[in-house]
Design goal:
Its EC number is 1.3.1.48, 1.3.1.74. Monomer or homodimer. Pfam families: ADH_N_2, ADH_zinc_N. Belongs to the NADP-dependent oxidoreductase L4BD family. This is Prostaglandin reductase 1. It is a single chain. Helix 3 crosses helix 4. By secondary structure, the chain is of the alpha/beta class. Helix 10 links the parallel strand 12 and strand 13. The radius of gyration is 20 Å and the shape is globular. Strands 1, 2, 3, 4, 5, 12 and 13 form a seven-stranded mixed sheet that branches. It has a six-stranded parallel sheet with strand order 8-7-6-9-10-11, sandwiched between helices. It folds into two domains: 125 residues, Medium-chain alcohol dehydrogenases, catalytic domain (Quinone Oxidoreductase, Chain A, domain 1), CATH 3.90.180; 149 residues, 3-Layer(aba) Sandwich (Rossmann fold), CATH 3.40.50.720. Bound molecules: NADPH dihydro-nicotinamide-adenine-dinucleotide phosphate. The site of NADPH dihydro-nicotinamide-adenine-dinucleotide phosphate has 30 residues, from helix 3, helix 4 and helix 10.
Length: 307
């Protein structure tokens, strides 16, 4: 359908959006498998430009983040749209609003501050460490004066983690014994564990926690293809004897803090304290390939599609 034609049907508050960047995220896998029917538009977030508007909150030319799904053009009544930070710097790509200065960056920040209560001098373990969330987790932990150990799935990713200032980084696919490498990386154990992966990694990592250690369960990407719900096993006796605290969370819990938190993330970026690497795939038609590539670990940093 012509987009001008679409505009003819606008109601008073509607806007027409043109996608610039689409986000490629792990949650799309379990969500689409469990909650969507064949033929529905795939869910997802994008940065878009307002190209027609009947809504004064979103004038023509402004940029928004919206949950529009995998679409190049969307008619929206404004529900769920958020304007980009008003003073978004010209030299910072707007795609970061889907990554380090968007949902994944907020996930890292809230997981560390609200769930783990990470303190200077503590040792943190993070897995999927070279990804959108993990790479920001490690860098914020360094800003806070912590020792950071990261796990990721290729030697290229390990080199990236070292560039970011991680104290220790390893390739979990080639280390042999995960238990040994975790012990060597931090012989005294871990105060905090930012968990992105789940499955066997957790069962090995949890016994490496210090007494009163804290675990933030952010994601479980190793299980997103499982057809049966995961039942464990978690090392319960370790959790009891070490008196560990484990808490699952969703980034949306602290939505009311987002404006201030996004400004903090942007400030760290501007000060050169946050490197915001992206894996950019060109072309809307390559969205499925980018999505499958991310699930297979091809991305370093945030996976994005540039329309
Ligand atoms: P990433 O950018 O980290 O991309 C996914 C990465 O996961 C891949 O690059 C790969 O890295 C790793 N991976 C994929 N399959 C497996 C597997 N079977 N076993 C181990 N690792 C695997 O994604 P995000 O940073 O966006 O997300 C990271 C985690 O955080 C996900 O679990 C996601 O669902 C979760 N999340 C949770 C949120 C919340 O509110 N709770 C919000 C946002 C994300 P590698 O090469 O290192 O294996």
């Amino acid at each position: 359908m012509s987009y001008i034609f679409m505009f003819l049907f606008f109601s008073v508050s509607e806007v027409l959006l043109e996608a610039l960047f689409l986000s490629v995220d792990p949650y799309m896998r379990p969500f689409s498998r469990v909650r969507m029917k064949e033929g529905e538009v795939m869910i997802g977030t994008q940065v878009a430009k307002v190209i027609q508007s009947n809504n004064p909150t979103f004038p023509v030319g402004c940029h928004v983040v919206g949950r529009c799904g995998w679409r190049t053009h969307t008619v929206s009544d404004g529900t769920g749209l958020t304007c980009l930070l008003s003073d978004w710097p010209q030299d910072v790509s707007m795609s970061l609003a889907l990554g380090a200065i968007g949902m994944p960056g907020l996930t890292a920040l809230y997981g560390l501050e609200e769930v783990l209560g990470l303190q200077a001098g503590e040792t943190l373990l993070v897995n999927a460490a070279a990804g959108a969330v993990g790479s920001i987790v490690g860098q914020i932990a360094k800003i806070k004066g912590c020792r950071v150990v990261g796990s990721s799935g290729s030697d290229g990713k390990v080199a990236f983690l070292k560039e970011l200032g991680f104290d220790e980084a390893f390739n979990y696919k080639t280390v042999g014994s995960l238990e040994e490498v975790l012990k060597t990386a931090s012989p005294d154990g871990y105060d905090c564990f930012f968990e992105n992966v789940g499955g066997p990694f957790s069962s090995v990592a949890i016994p490496q926690m210090k007494e009163f250690g804290r675990i933030a369960v952010c994601g479980s990407i190793s299980t997103y293809n499982d057809t049966n719900p995961q039942t464990g096993p978690y090392p319960h006796l370790t959790m009891i004897f070490k008196q560990l605290k484990m808490e699952g969370f969703m980034v949306s819990r602290w939505e009311h803090k987002n404006p201030e938190s996004l400004m903090r993330l942007m400030a760290w970026k501007r000060e050169g304290k946050l490197q915001c690497r992206e894996q950019v795939t060109e072309g809307f038609e390559n969205m499925p390939a980018a999505f499958m590539g991310m699930l297979q670990g091809e991305n370093i940093g945030k996976a994005i599609v540039k329309v």
